[in-house]
Write a structure and sequence with these properties.
The protein is mostly helical and about 400 residues long. Helix content is about 80%, strand content about 0%. It is built from 15 helices and no strands. Helix 2 packs across helix 3, helix 3 crosses helix 5 and helix 5 packs antiparallel against helix 6.
């Protein structure tokens, strides 16, 4: 039996089954996005391409995620949001099949483009859907759970891909997405309530949201944060190998620890967001400035570096949940448009931070991405001060 959801009535109790199935979908999407990182060599060998060409599997998915995030909600504004999410999950499954059975490089890249479509569409709606189905006090916890799925995937995608690739080949590793995607589809069909679409979509309305000064400042602070995060974290492996001189086992243990610390941070963040959101948005990046600079000075000291990186994971991973919660309070009636910007700008920030960090790492020195990270984190904290002041003025 279908569950109906009336937009005019706030949910009395949170349907946690629906939240968990969305968390599962977020896990599969993010794992699918980053799995090629550890499988580039076998992919390139079998599809008669270079490693660089195989690496474009991530670039193309990011490109289509941005395009879909910005434009899909305009096209599907009047459709039931449950139906739209189910369609994006079908695209996820089709992508997995296309990549698994790709006879050549072109079909492989088409499959990767489809995962980008699914990622962009799903994440542009996810925050708005959580805000609609969760009761008011439970929204921060539900959003943290949603982000927890992506955080877990970001931690294990590369090692999981490498492990599965060694057991069943790179095609088998990608095929794992298919049955999990089917399970997610069935679960969504059962657990998600019907959520009627709204008024006709308008690209102008999406872009006009940036005319809201508070929202624009918030997105600026968010971009700076993610640029700083990925300028540093993208190059942790060569840093730990060449500067800290960790062996493979110790390095893997540190990277796993960063992920586990991040999951711990995500589980703790809901209680902080209820009463101390400004402290999170300003304080977390401000503290991370010190962490990034301390890593430059203490990089050769293994135990100090490991401790600092655990702290890094603890503070960076919960931040997406903080910004999505902030959006539900700042633009509660424009969450789909805000979600589109959220996805598009994060993809832009990740790409920009990783690209700039790579140039600095190669041409200036290993320490330079850490300094860049500190500078952008400081910029995020300072901008977040303006965000909280603008929010207070608007609320008063």
């Amino acid at each position: 039996m279908d569950i109906n959801y009336d937009m005019r009535i706030e949910a009395k109790t949170t349907p946690w089954s629906a939240v968990i199935c969305m968390m599962l979908t977020s896990f599969v999407l993010v794992a699918s996005e980053f799995m090629p990182v550890s499988l580039l060599t076998p992919i390139a060998d079998e599809l008669a391409s270079t490693a660089g060409q195989a690496g474009q599997a991530i670039s193309i998915s990011g490109f289509f995620a941005v395009i879909t995030a910005l434009f899909s909600n305009v096209l599907f504004a009047r459709f039931d949001r449950r139906l739209v999410i189910l369609c994006y999950t079908v695209v996820l499954v089709v992508s997995g099949l296309a990549v698994t059975f790709a006879p050549n490089y072109l079909i492989f890249m088409v499959g990767r483009a489809l995962i980008g479509v699914s990622i962009g569409g799903y994440w542009s709606l996810a925050t708005a859907i959580i805000a609609r189905i969760a009761s008011g006090p439970d929204v921060p916890k539900a959003l943290a759970m949603l982000q927890g799925g992506s955080a877990l995937a970001a931690v294990i995608a590369a090692p999981l891909g490498s492990f599965l690739g060694s057991l069943v080949g790179w095609r088998g590793a990608f095929f794992i997405v298919v049955p999990i995607g089917i399970v997610a589809f069935i679960w969504q069909a059962i657990a998600l309530p019907r959520m009627p679409g709204g008024q006709s979509g308008s690209l102008g309305r999406t872009f006009s949201l940036m005319g809201n000064r508070t929202f624009a400042l918030g997105m600026t602070a968010m971009i700076l944060f993610f640029m700083g995060q990925f300028a540093l974290s993208t190059y942790l492996r060569p840093f730990l190998e060449d500067i800290t001189h960790l062996g493979v086992n110790a390095l893997s243990l540190v990277l796993l620890g960063i992920g586990l610390a991040g999951l711990a941070g995500t589980s703790l963040i809901p209680s902080m967001l209820r009463a101390h959101m400004a402290h999170v948005l300003i304080g977390f990046p401000a503290v991370l400035v010190t962490v990034a600079l301390a890593l430059v000075g203490l990089g050769p000291v293994a135990f100090a570096t490991a401790g600092l990186l655990l702290f890094w994971g603890l503070l960076t991973t919960p931040v997406p949940a903080a910004w999505t919660t902030w959006m539900t309070r700042t633009v509660p009636h424009h969450l789909e448009e805000a979600g589109a910007w959220f996805v598009a700008l994060i993809q832009f920030a990740i790409t920009s931070g990783a690209f700039a960090g790579g140039l600095l790492f190669d041409h200036v020195g290993w320490w330079s991405p850490f300094v860049l990270s500190a500078v952008t984190m400081l910029g995020s904290a300072v901008t977040a001060v303006g965000v909280t002041r603008a929010y207070k003025r608007a609320s008063s």
